[in-house]
């Protein structure tokens, strides 16, 4: 294996930033004691906020530190998703929530460390709490509401990544749960960006919650005079041969009604996963049409017989037509 295969670019950048992060203060303190010190002294200049002085060097440290933490968080995320958590018995939704919680906690630690690198005393930021409270009161209610709702969703097993959900008329799969929004990927490949507060307050149908199997049904009408027992037998044979349809619970065929133009049957069955929500009924209809044609069973369609009791002038029209047929045509010379 080549060196390029062993070390990915992200790991190389991480190592370089880590090296500079460690070597920079050591080399800077050494250079200050040399003749170059007078040219580098401006790194220690800065601005004072209250009793805290923020220097250019502290800002450089902070930038390097954030770059280091960004690459480190990516490595931790990939390690948890691809190596550590797949070995556990947690489902994909619980694993995703756990990864997000670890990364968010990691970044809270990074922000706290970054403030200390700048030399800011956290006690001096107490006034920001009051300002934040005023801001929440005036216009940040929705942001805070979505933030708190996002934290609740991360620990709430009722909606997890990978679940198939129905929100109003929209269907899709939960792709990602962020702090502010939840991303649902629709079947049309559109990304529905839904505020977390709506995921908690509005009605959401989760077709994957606890038990992934889903019951579906397909209606079919056959012509009057068809052998209903034969129809039932064929329908049960079709569903038993389809792998996406479960044998337990057992599929059933119900004779629903004597319709205006057809005998109505309903096939009820269970599918193993919501991902077959559309494909299983579609494939079943194709097979029903194919098997009914083989067994000379007619799929009924709406039809009506019209009986005319009387109509003004209709008898005269029919008499004129009959008389015109009786008149022989003259031979043309």
Terminal CA distance reads 104 Å
Secondary structure class reads alpha+beta
Tell me about the largest β-sheet.
Answer: 5 strands, antiparallel
What's the oligomerization state? single chain
For the CA atoms, what is the radius of gyration? Answer: 37 Å
- If helices are DSSP runs of H or I spanning 4 or more residues, what is the number of helices? 11
Low-confidence stretches: 1-7
Percentage of residues in strands: 15-25%
Query: Average pLDDT, to the nearest integer?
Result: 77
Summarize the helix and strand pattern as letters: HHHEEHHHHEEEEHEEHEEHH
- Helicity level: 40-55%
State the strand order across the main sheet: 6-5-4-3-7
Shape: elongated
- How many domain regions? 3
**Count of β-strands:** 10
Textual characterization of the structure:
- This protein has 333 residues and is an alpha+beta fold.
- It folds into 3 domains: 7-33 and 41-120; 143-206, SH3 type barrels (Roll); 214-294, Alpha-Beta Plaits (2-Layer Sandwich).
- It is 49% helix and 17% strand.
- The chain contains 11 helices and 10 strands.
- A hairpin with a 2-residue loop joins β3 and β4 (170-177).
- α2 (9-32) runs antiparallel to α4, α4 (56-84) runs antiparallel to α5 and α9 (228-240) packs across α10.
- The protein is elongated, with a radius of gyration of 37 Å.
- Residues 1-7 have low confidence and may be disordered.
Question: What topology does this entry show?
Answer:
Layout: H1 3-6, H2 9-32, H3 37-40, E1 46-49, E2 52-55, H4 56-84, H5 92-117, H6 126-138, H7 141-155, E3 164-167, E4 170-177, E5 181-186, E6 191-195, H8 196-201, E7 205-206, E8 214-222, H9 228-240, E9 252-258, E10 263-271, H10 279-294, H11 314-326
Antiparallel strand pairs: 1-2, 3-4, 3-7, 4-5, 5-6, 8-10, 9-10
């Amino acid at each position: 294996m080549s060196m390029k295969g062993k070390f990915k670019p992200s790991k190389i950048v991480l190592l370089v930033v880590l090296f500079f992060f460690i070597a920079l203060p050591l080399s800077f303190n050494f250079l200050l004691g040399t003749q170059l010190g007078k040219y580098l002294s401006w790194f220690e200049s800065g601005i004072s906020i209250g009793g805290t002085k923020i220097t250019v060097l502290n800002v450089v440290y902070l930038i390097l530190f954030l770059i280091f933490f960004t690459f480190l968080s990516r490595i931790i995320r990939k390690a948890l998703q691809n190596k550590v958590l797949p070995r556990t018995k947690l489902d994909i939704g619980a694993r995703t929530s756990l990864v997000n919680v670890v990364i968010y906690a990691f970044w809270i630690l990074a922000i706290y460390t970054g403030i200390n690198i700048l030399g800011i005393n956290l006690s001096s930021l107490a006034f920001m709490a009051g300002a934040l409270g005023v801001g929440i009161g005036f216009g940040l209610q929705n942001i805070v509401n979505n933030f708190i709702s996002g934290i609740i969703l991360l620990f709430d097993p009722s909606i997890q990544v990978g679940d198939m959900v129905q929100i109003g008329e929209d269907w899709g799969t939960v792709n990602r749960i962020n702090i502010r929004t939840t991303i649902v990927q629709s079947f049309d490949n559109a990304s529905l960006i839904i505020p977390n507060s709506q995921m908690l307050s509005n009605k959401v149908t989760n077709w994957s919650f606890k038990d992934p199997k889903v019951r579906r049904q397909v209606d079919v009408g056959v012509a009057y005079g068809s052998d209903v027992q034969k129809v039932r037998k064929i329908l049960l044979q079709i569903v038993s041969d389809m792998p996406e349809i479960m044998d337990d619970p057992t599929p059933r065929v119900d004779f629903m009604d004597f319709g205006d133009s057809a005998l109505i049957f309903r096939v009820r069955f269970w599918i193993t996963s919501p991902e077959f929500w559309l494909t299983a009924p579609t494939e079943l209809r194709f097979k029903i049409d194919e098997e009914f044609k083989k067994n000379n069973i007619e799929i009924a369609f709406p039809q009506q017989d019209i009986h005319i009791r009387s109509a003004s002038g209709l008898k005269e029209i029919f008499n004129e037509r009959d008389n015109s047929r009786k008149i022989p045509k003259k031979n043309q010379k």
